[in-house]
């Protein structure tokens, strides 16, 4: 399986690492650390050196309960960093749910659109088709971080997530989007039991036939399972969760701790072939 990223090819015959770079003051794990271009670029260089295959750049926190920011503020945070990071030569994914932000990021040369809104806004679909850019479609019960946990109710979380992702993927491809990546949205309107069920049955989502992205890095679920309160110390639990996801079909792992995951995947790949 290969993913074409606007002139670049990402070989998904083995799991790949997407390094997280948040240029936000309020992200749950690393908010406020990379607010200027220099510190963000230094972090991107570190992610690349540690083994990241691509970088996911975000200018708005979408953790449960996060307050929204305006499109102008998100662009102010994001676009100068994007221009700098693109010079490193790695594919760059833009993590946004705003068409205004996506339009300028794609015009600058971003390689992948990571829409945590799940392509609910048709303008995002049209932009991806116009720029011939693949899209990550993430599931959440509603496109509102402040209220999503109020909607964490499922009769069968895997069936409902799969249905949403299938429907959104079919619509995007019919509209001319060149490729889609599916993200179950761990933690987005989902409680511990929902996240565990999704992880146990991840192969059912992989069977939809599109590359699968999983992001459990440092999340509350890891803390609930391990008892580790500080997100930056949830490295071991994150690696364990992501190796489980890889075994069940995940092809892209969205992680903060690239070096630890790269070491674990080196062993995993040698054993699993």
TrEMBL record:
Domain Pterin-binding positions:
15-266
Enzymatic reactions: (7,8-dihydropterin-6-yl)methyl diphosphate + 4-aminobenzoate = 7,8-dihydropteroate + diphosphate
Do you know which Pfam families this protein is assigned to? Pterin_bind
Gene3D superfamilies assigned to the protein according to its UniProt record, in alphabetical order: Dihydropteroate synthase-like
Cited function? Catalyzes the condensation of para-aminobenzoate (pABA) with 6-hydroxymethyl-7,8-dihydropterin diphosphate (DHPt-PP) to form 7,8-dihydropteroate (H2Pte), the immediate precursor of folate derivatives.
Q: Which PANTHER family match?
A: FOLATE SYNTHESIS PROTEINS (PTHR20941), FOLIC ACID SYNTHESIS PROTEIN FOL1 (PTHR20941:SF1)
Protein name from the UniProt record: Dihydropteroate synthase
Q: Which organism is it from?
A: Oceanithermus profundus (strain DSM 14977 / NBRC 100410 / VKM B-2274 / 506)
């Amino acid at each position: 399986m290969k993913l074409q990223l606007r002139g670049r090819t990402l070989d998904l015959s083995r799991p790949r690492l997407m390094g997280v770079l948040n240029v936000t003051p309020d992200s749950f794990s690393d908010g406020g650390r990379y607010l200027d271009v220099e510190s963000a670029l230094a972090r991107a260089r570190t992610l690349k050196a540690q083994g990241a295959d691509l970088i996911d750049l975000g200018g708005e926190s979408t953790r449960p309960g996060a307050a929204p920011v305006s499109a102008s503020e998100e662009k102010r945070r994001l676009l100068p960093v994007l221009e700098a990071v693109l010079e490193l030569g790695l594919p760059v994914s833009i993590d946004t749910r705003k068409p205004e932000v996506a339009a300028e990021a794609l015009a600058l040369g971003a390689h992948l659109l990571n829409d945590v809104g799940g392509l609910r806004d048709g303008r995002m679909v049209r932009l991806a088709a116009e720029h011939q850019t693949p899209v990550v479609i993430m599931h959440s019960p509603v496109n509102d971080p402040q209220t999503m946990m109020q909607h964490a109710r499922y009769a069968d979380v895997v069936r409902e997530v799969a249905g949403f992702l299938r429907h959104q993927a079919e619509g995007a491809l019919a509209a001319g989007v060149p490729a889609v990546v599916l993200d179950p949205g761990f933690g987005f309107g989902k409680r511990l039991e929902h996240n565990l069920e999704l992880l146990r049955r991840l192969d059912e989502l992989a069977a939809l036939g599109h590359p699968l992205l999983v992001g459990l890095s440092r999340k509350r679920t890891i803390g609930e399972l391990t008892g580790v309160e500080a997100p930056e110390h949830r490295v071991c639990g994150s690696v364990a969760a992501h190796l489980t996801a890889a075994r069940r079909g995940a092809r892209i792992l969205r992680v903060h701790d690239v070096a630890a995951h790269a070491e674990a995947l080196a062993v995993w790949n040698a054993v699993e072939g």
